[in-house]
Structures are given as C-alpha cells and as structure tokens.
DNA sequence: GTCCGATAATTGGTTCAACCAATTTTGGAC
DNA sequence: GTCCAAAATTGGTTGAACCAATTATCGGAC
C-alpha cells in the first residue's frame, strides 16, 4: 500500500512471456523472420528458449493481437506483412526493439498529431458541454498540484473528450504513450514550459468562447512550436 | 488446399479463449465490470466458465493488450478506464460486443478518416517515388481483375505508402477493418462504384502530376461523397 | 504414371495438477 | 495503536497429457 506507482512500475520484474515476445518481435521487425515465413513450432520454441510451451503461447498471443502473425491450428504461425494488416500499436512495439527507427517513428507520430489535434480542438470548441468546460478550466487555470507535463496530458485528453469523437480521445492516448520517449526533452526547458502554460490558458478561453477557428489555430501553433523545439533539442543532443 | 478463404474464415471454430474474451469484454463495455473494479481470480473464472485456468489467462492477456485491464501478480486484475488508457483497437472490440454503439463508432471513424486521408494524399503527391507511382497506375487504371472494393482498399493503401508516413498506412489498415461493417453498403450501388472508379483515376493523375492540393481536394471530395451516400443508405435501411 | 482416399504424423488448442513468486491478510508481540 | 513475521491469496510458470485441425504419407484403383 505504501509503494508509489513509480516504484511499482520500475521494479516490476519482466514476465518471461514478455521476454519471449521481445525476442520474436525483434526477429520480425529486423527481418530475420520474413513475411510469409513460418515460425518454429511452439514446442520447438519452448525448447529453444528454455521455457514452457504455455509461456511461448502467451507471447504468440501478443503478436497475434498486433496482427503481426496468423496462427492456424494444425499448421503453424506465419509472419504477416504489418504494412498491410498491422495495427497502430505496432509502432510502439517497433520502438521498443529497434532504436534505429526511433526518429522516423517520432516524426511520423508528430505529423499525424499535427493533422488531427487542431481539428479535435475545432470540434471541441463547437461541441463542448458545460461539464467538460468546467473540468478544462480546473485543469488549465490552476497552476498548483501536478507537473506541467501531467497537466498538458490532461488538457489534450479533455479536449478529446469535449470533441465528442472517441477516436480523438484514443489517438490522444496513443500520442501520450510516447511522452516517455520525448516529452521530458521538451518540458525540461523552462521556456517551453511557459509556452505550454500559455497554450493551456489560450485554448481554454477559445473553447469557452466556442471560437472553433481560434482553438484550431492555437492548437496548431503549439504543435508547430513544440515540434521545432523538440527537433532542435534532438539535433543538439546528437551533436553533443 | 481447396477451401476458399471465405469458407475458412466463416467455418473456423471459435477458440475457447476467444469466447471467454468476448464475455469479459462485454461485461467491461456494458459496465457490469466498472472502472477500478477487481475481476474475479483466474481460478474462480475458470470455474465459472467451465474452462481451464490457462484458457482464462489467454483471454486476460488479450484484454491486457488492449489496455482494458491491468494485472498484478499476487493481487489480481483491475478494469482500467479505456478513455484514459485504451488503445485504438478497442473500438473494433466494442463493435463486436455492443451493436448499439455501431452508428456512433462508424461516424467517429469516418470523421477521423476525413481529417487524415486528404493530408495523406497531399503528402503522397509530394513524396511519391517512381515505384509507388507505377504500382498506383497498375491498380488505378486496370479495370480487370479484382472487385472495385478491393481496388479501392489497395489505392488507399498505396497512397499511404507513398506518403512516407507509416502511421498513415496503419491508420488506413484500421479504417479497412470496418469495410466489412459498411463497405458493401456503399459499393453495392452501381452509381457509387462508378464514382469511386473516377476517383481512382483522378487521384492517380493528381499524384502523378505531384499536384498536392488537387490530390487533397480529390480525396476530400470522395470521402464527403461516400459519407453522404452511406448515411442516406443507412437511413433508408432504418426506414424500411 | 496419376489420382484418390485412408491413415499416420505434425501442430496448434485445451486440460490438469503442481509449484514458484509477489502481494495481501492475519495475528501476535510490543 | 504500530510493527513484524507467518499464513493465505493470487498471478506466473512448468510438465505432461490429450483433443482437434491440418498436412504428409502410402497403398491401391485406374
């Protein structure tokens, strides 16, 4: 009961089937297991990795849920072409096993966010309910309590809810999964922090006024700003 | 070897752990299992459903992959708030267990597509390689072979590839998972078919000319058209 | 020789029983 | 009441066995 969530997450022992997942994932992403190729049998993999077949099966279940493989009883498991059938979650999986694609993936994510979030803000300004507005105000104007990064997450999330489109919410969840990868790079800078706090207020008032065009513009500008700030940071980091 | 893919898919016996998944999914989506609530123990569920604990575990693994539950060794499994942490794949899961949200979900998906795909076409026109252009031409201009709906899927997919953003490709995969739900309603109409075939040619030529603005406009127009066509269809279906 | 069908071998799906590892609960010492 | 160690609870993993679908094999009909 006393353990903080941070400790729980950092200490948590990696489950064996997650390690197996990682190995297979790496083989697929790196191309050691090519599209259409048949995986070893469950029994053979259990032997190879020195684990139980049940454990292998849990790993295969994960890859199947990502649409990275198909499994057919009596036959075997085959690698699918993730560009044709894979679901969006695979980019996170990719990042975890292949750091070389990191920059490309992050760029792709930010581009998608730059396309979607302004429209999300637009819809939110038009459709926001009174209760969403209230929650937005509580989060945007109260400077105490949580960190800026946490407040930023919450603002985007609330705007998603206010937009009335569940996919906007889920897309926002998706972006946030990558805050761990690059969010701190942005928010550790004091100037960026200030800029985002201004954003929180501005977008709240635009949504309050139901000025959709302005909300869209404000969202667009903060995303462009943060992208620029982030990439210059990454470039500096690479030079150092 | 003789069985067609259709037969394979329709006949395929539902795996037991998938049935368990379905039950638990329904309980969560319908709110019988509320956010924060603890699920029964694996052993208890195995008893309740009359299956083995291993089978229950495979179902739980699925829900965990969807970020619908968290599992903690020594403690148990808890329902998460999917609006805060769920990944995009859950909307498909929702559709499979709760038909009442069907209209809302499809509307949400089409809105997101209307936001993204025109920008995807824009990028594709700017960045398309010669090989992507070639594949696009083969698909867009050859009227023989596959059905219009299959050609349509392929066109969108190729535009995604040409855009150079892997997320555009994966988002396109995502939309396509719902063609089964509403695609046939659109493509069974001869006039709609003709309209889409025109779209295929038009967007190809725009991308060939690298006219990004035009490609974006063409994409936007076909999406608006198809949405209108689809909703009038759904409305008629509801009246009949 | 080819083709067909029965049969065997292979492989994923499920079950059972046991034990390991983390967490929670219990109950006594203070 | 607090604290700590033991016990109970619960998820994680293992091993072996059997079920079910697919594939490979082999013998006979032609």
Please provide a written account of the structure.
Two copies of one chain form a homodimer. With 240 residues, chain A is mainly alpha-helical. The first copy, chain A, has two domains: 14-87, Winged helix-like DNA-binding domain superfamily/Winged helix DNA-binding domain (Arc Repressor Mutant, subunit A, Orthogonal Bundle); 98-239, Four Helix Bundle (Hemerythrin (Met), subunit A). Helices cover 73% and strands 3% of the residues of chain A. Chain A has 13 helices and two strands, in the order H-H-H-H-E-E-H-H-H-H-H-H-H-H-H. Chain A has a two-stranded antiparallel ribbon. In chain A, strand 1 (69-72) and strand 2 (76-79) form a beta hairpin. In chain A, helix 7 (102-127) runs antiparallel to helix 10 (166-176) and helix 8 runs antiparallel to helix 9 (148-163). Chain A is elongated, with a radius of gyration of 21 Å. Mean pLDDT of chain A is 89; it is low at 1-11. Chains A and B meet through helix 4, helix 5, helix 7 and helix 10 of A and helix 4, helix 5, helix 7 and helix 10 of B. Chain A binds a DNA duplex (30 and 30 nucleotides) through residues 1, 13, 15-17, 41-43, 51-55, 57-58, 60, 71-77.
């Amino acid at each position: 009961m006393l353990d903080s969530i941070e400790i729980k997450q950092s200490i948590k022992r990696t489950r064996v089937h997650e390690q197996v997942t990682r190995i297979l994932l790496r083989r697929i992403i790196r191309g050691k297991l090519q599209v259409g190729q048949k995986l070893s049998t469950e029994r053979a993999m259990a032997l190879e990795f020195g684990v139980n077949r049940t454990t292998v099966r849990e790993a295969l279940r994960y890859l199947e849920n990502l649409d990275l493989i198909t499994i057919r009883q009596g036959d075997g498991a085959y690698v699918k072409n993730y560009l044709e059938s894979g679901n969006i979650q695979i980019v996170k999986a990719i990042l975890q096993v292949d750091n070389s694609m990191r920059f490309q993936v992050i760029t792709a994510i930010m581009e998608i966010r730059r396309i979607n979030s302004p429209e999300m803000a637009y819809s939110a300004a038009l459709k926001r309910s009174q209760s969403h507005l209230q929650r937005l105000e509580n989060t945007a104007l109260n400077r105490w309590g949580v960190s800026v990064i946490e407040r930023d997450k919450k603002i985007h999330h609330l705007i998603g809810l206010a937009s009335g489109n569940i996919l906007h919410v889920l897309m926002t969840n998706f972006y946030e999964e990558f805050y761990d990868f690059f969010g701190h790079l942005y928010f550790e800078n004091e100037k960026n922090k200030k800029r985002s706090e201004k954003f929180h207020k501005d977008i709240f008032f635009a949504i309050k006024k139901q000025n959709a065009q302005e909300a869209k513009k404000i969202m667009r500008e903060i995303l462009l700003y943060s992208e620029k700030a982030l990439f210059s940071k990454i470039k500096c980091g690479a030079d150092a």
